[in-house]
Amino acid sequence: MKRKTASFTGMRPIFTGSPSIVQGGFNLDVEGQKFRVGDVVPAGTLAIFNETTRKVQVIKTAKVVEVDNENNKKVTLYVDEFYAPCFAVGDSVLKVGAVTGTFASAPTITAIDNGNCLNNTGNVYVVTLSAAITGLKAGDVLTEVVKDSSNNAAERGKANSVLFREYEVSEFETGVDVSADTMQYALYERRVPPIPSSQKDSTGMFLSANPHVKLTQSY
């Protein structure tokens, strides 16, 4: 599916049925989180909605495909015809399962190359980091981190919802809808950006912060 933006994502079902949508509508929190105008935030991305501010932040994750042998600060991330990562220059990142240390020591993204996206002719998404991540390898997952109250690196938060569909980041307001209840249905986990185990309950079948969002490994 061709797009006029810097994306080569398409559409496919991410739920086994029609989940409920949180009423009222929200805007992507572009003040509290970095985004590149024209990027597409994938459908099913974990989200944190705030009913008071009517804003939504997302949990940015991506699977590592390759770490450059000659420059281990260059990391290729997984993309396919349906979604690509939505990182931005300046994001701090660490490996899922190894979010430790001070926030100041976490590598930041200094450059993003998704060169072929405009023409829909290739699957390229390479980030350059300010410093290499020790032990990072193919199959690992990168996640955005933020500074906690102790100045340490931490996950952005616990997701209480998921994006209902994909959304293109606008220069101005970007309206989004979220689902906080999949009802009798479930989210196809393998069709959306990686979901860290820290975001799931002990069974791995529900979000830990909202057990009304059910996950399935069916594909």
The helix fraction, in percent, is under 10%
Major beta-sheet overview: 7 strands, antiparallel
Rg, Cα atoms, Å? 17 Å
Give me the secondary-structure category.
mainly beta
Q: What is the beta-strand fraction?
A: 25-35%
Question: Which terms summarize this structure?
Answer:
single chain; 219 residues; mainly beta; 7-stranded antiparallel β-sheet; 6-stranded mixed β-sheet; 18 strands; disordered N terminus
Characterise this structure.
- With 219 residues, the protein is mostly beta strands.
- 0% of the residues lie in helices and 31% in strands.
- It is built from no helices and 18 strands.
- It has strands at residues 26-28, 40-41, 46-50, 55-58, 61-67, 74-77, 92-95, 109-113, 126-129, 141-147, 153-155, 161-163, 167-168, 175-176, 178-179, 187-188, 206-207, 210-216.
- The protein has one domain (26-216).
- Strands 5, 6, 7, 8, 9, 10 and 11 form a 7-stranded antiparallel beta sheet that branches. Strands 14-1-4-3-12-15 form a 6-stranded mixed beta sheet, with no helix packed on it. A 3-stranded mixed beta sheet has the order 16-18-17, with no helix packed on it.
Describe the SSE topology.
Elements: E1 26-28, E2 40-41, E3 46-50, E4 55-58, E5 61-67, E6 74-77, E7 92-95, E8 109-113, E9 126-129, E10 141-147, E11 153-155, E12 161-163, E13 167-168, E14 175-176, E15 178-179, E16 187-188, E17 206-207, E18 210-216
Parallel strand pairs: 1-4, 16-18
Antiparallel strand pairs: 1-14, 2-13, 3-4, 3-12, 5-6, 5-10, 6-9, 7-10, 8-9, 10-11, 12-15, 17-18
Task: Describe this structure in a few short sentences.
This protein is an all-beta fold. The protein contains no helices and 18 strands. Strands 5, 6, 7, 8, 9, 10 and 11 form a 7-stranded antiparallel sheet that branches. It has a 6-stranded mixed sheet with strand order 14-1-4-3-12-15, with no helix packed on it. It has a 3-stranded mixed sheet with strand order 16-18-17, with no helix packed on it.
